[in-house]
Amino acid sequence: MFRVGQVIAHATPRTITEGDTAVYQGLYGSRFAVQSSAPFARAVGYPTAPIDDLIVFHVILGKTVPDISLNAIANLGYADCRFLAPVYPGDTLTATSEVLGLRENSSGDSGIVYVRTNGMNQDGVTVLTYARWVMVRKRDKSAPAPTPTVPKLPEVVTADQLGAAVPSLHIPSWDKTLAGSAHFWDDYAVGEKIDHVDGMTIEEAEHQIATRLYQNTARVHFNQHVEGQGRFGRRLVYGGAVIVDETGYDNVMLELSGKGVSVRYRQRMPVPVSMWQPWLGLLRTPAGARADFFATPVVTVHGIKVATLICYEQLLVWPILHSAMGSPDMLVAPANGWWTANTDIVAIQTAATMAWARLFNLPLVMPINS
């Protein structure tokens, strides 16, 4: 049972070695010169090559999993993540977490736990701190809900709070050729888009090795017997870190082409309460799905005018009437049905959407994730 103010000391200190760096580079292909080359690191001001920051993050996160998120439904987000001191081969990391907040979900069978985790080295120096929030199953669904407590977390990490883990660098010794990039901070512009052309296929063996490397014991990454009977039918790839916009998120329709990815449609009406939660903004807590009530009713794709109804919109009258005003050529209606197992919701959505298509004499495409 979690309680606000509870401090948890996580088990199993971990000494980080150059072997960890070698395995990490083998898995992820990291090419940062400072972390890859001891001579390069020494030339710019480090005593030797430090451990990659993300190794530090993954190891500290792995320490917390048995106590915080072993039975998590979803890892929802992170905030105020700061690397405070460099970590070198031979350093030993431990972690503690403080419970900052608790909030039961409307379903009554799960809730959100907010924690602040600190990672320390063998000298007690804090090398990493971050907050995260996790959706966790309740052990006893009938247990009374705790008083909702949602912590106020920083919306951004300001520039003056960054760089504590970096020594004073000797920039003239920074070899741009060896670093592999001629670009520095002032070469980038706000709003600039960078197309990273290379992709990587994730293999089962690789994500299993990575998760074990960080001693992450969450069953969603390991137990195919259990996860095979779950909503996805297979284990989830360990992601390590997810960036979440605390102002909310959009349910969108994307166009994928050789030119890149573009958002063509934003959902006008997400499901109220479970997704659309505008009041959370007043509580300064991570918000739910955004509602773009009068977003583009029709989009044109290769000369075809497409009306889009995402999931809940298929059950409402005004989104289809709004789209019909744009004289669409066809109706595209994606739905996410995995969460409605053992209910008639998908059947109802399908019947409603087919009725709209017939009413307005529109060809219908209706992909359903069930």
Key features?
single chain; 370 residues; alpha+beta; Thiol Ester Dehydrase, Chain A; Nitrilase/N-carbamoyl-D-aminoacid amidohydrolase; six-stranded antiparallel β-sheet; four-stranded mixed β-sheet; 9 helices; 14 strands
Task: Note down, in words, how this protein is organized.
The protein has 370 residues and is an alpha+beta fold. It folds into two domains: 7-213, Thiol Ester Dehydrase, Chain A, CATH 3.10.129; 247-369, Nitrilase/N-carbamoyl-D-aminoacid amidohydrolase (4-Layer Sandwich), CATH 3.60.110.10. Helix content is 21%, strand content 23%. It contains nine helices and 14 strands. It has helices at 18-28, 33-36, 38-44, 53-68, 176-179, 204-213, 224-227, 318-324, 345-359; strands at 7-9, 14-15, 72-83, 92-104, 110-120, 126-137, 252-257, 260-266, 298-301, 304-308, 330-332, 335-336, 364-365, 368-369.
Quick rundown:
The chain has 370 residues and is α+β, with helices and mostly antiparallel strands. The protein contains nine helices and 14 strands. The chain folds into two domains: 7-213, Thiol Ester Dehydrase, Chain A (Roll), CATH 3.10.129; 247-369, 4-Layer Sandwich (Nitrilase/N-carbamoyl-D-aminoacid amidohydrolase).
